[in-house]
Amino acid sequence: MLQYLALVCFVAHAGVSHALPTSNEVLPDQELVLAFVVNRHGERTPDADELSLSNEQEKLKNLTALDGLEGLTNVGKRRAYQIGKFLRQRYGCQGRKLVSNLYLYHEIAIRCTDKDRTKMTAQVAMSALYPPELEQQWDEGVGKVWQPIPYTAVPLKEDYLRYYSNCEKFKAMMAIAKQESINEEFKPFDHLIPKLKVLTGRNFTEDPLLFETLFDLLRSQVGLGLDIPEWAKPLLPKLGEAARLAYRLYFRTHEMKKIGGGVLLNNFMNLASDIAAGKPVKNRLRLFSAHDFNIGALMEVSKVKSDQSIPEYGAVFALELYKSRSSGELSVMPVYLPQAGESTAKVLHFEGCELDEYCNFSKFQVKTKEYLLPEKEFYSICNIKTEL
């Protein structure tokens, strides 16, 4: 079993091969002044699409009876706690001092997608980031170890973080990408398709995203304590490769990348520009409890150098803005944690800043301006009616 788990982890972590380890040590001249942090939720149970590919549906339904489909498992809750520990170590008083040990409403803003697993991940992570200090302990029991921390979420149909499910233009481009890719990227996997049709009853030529769906099913089963089915074991290496290619379809074109990550990048740029202009900016730690597609999209529009494998459960990506105490110059650093509790955070590099740990902010602006997408423009492009 361990050898198959290792293969799964290899596929998930291959995207950080060019990264350098980072620590929470604060460099004397560099002050962290803003961080946009996107995490993938913790381990979950299978969703309905994944369940439809399983030949053990009744067993999986029984195992998911407590948490429900797409529910955060106990393993996922522990993963979420590790996300919070990472945030405290890196951004708290013992790290880069962006937030206090006390929860202060003006220091942090948390946004989740309107999914139970991302909300629960944020709640558990916050319990690790902000164990209540004496001033915020509110009773003699649970109030000594936990305090409520607010988050925001908007309806899925109006959320730019859910671009792949609510944006009609993106879905139209994805349909084209799937049709083209089956005779291009997925040609080396032609031999898998007849086998998978027999094993799952689905025709993967109609939707190559099924490669990732099946791979996610196997990962969910492992998280539930089940062994990988015998039929899947010899196919797993190739299936992992195909799943990665399926994930990459979400970022196949310039416009797909812009729709996927442009709003987040634009929001980061606006706040960074306000800081550069000396304007007051609250909530300098911005946390987004979201999905693998959100991590990938922000990395793409930020032009991070990486082969972009599928982010694992509990993966964290951050854009960090620094100000030099001596010169006042602003710079940006991309940081990636492959899986909270299992790995070490790495400093990545942007295209055009391959030799620099800190990329000059003005240079970063020029390199990425083609992907900026104001939120109102996202709604217009995607034909989403909203009052947000």
Automatic annotation (TrEMBL):
Its EC number is 3.1.3.2. It catalyses: a phosphate monoester + H2O = an alcohol + phosphate. It holds the Pfam family His_Phos_2. PROSITE patterns: HIS_ACID_PHOSPHAT_1. InterPro entries: Acid_Pase_AS, His_Pase_clade-2, His_PPase_superfam, Histidine_acid_phosphatase. Residues 1-19 form the signal peptide. Keywords: Disulfide bond, Glycoprotein, Hydrolase, Signal. Belongs to the histidine acid phosphatase family. This is acid phosphatase. It comes from Chilo suppressalis (Asiatic rice borer moth). The lineage of its organism: Eukaryota, Metazoa, Ecdysozoa, Arthropoda, Hexapoda.
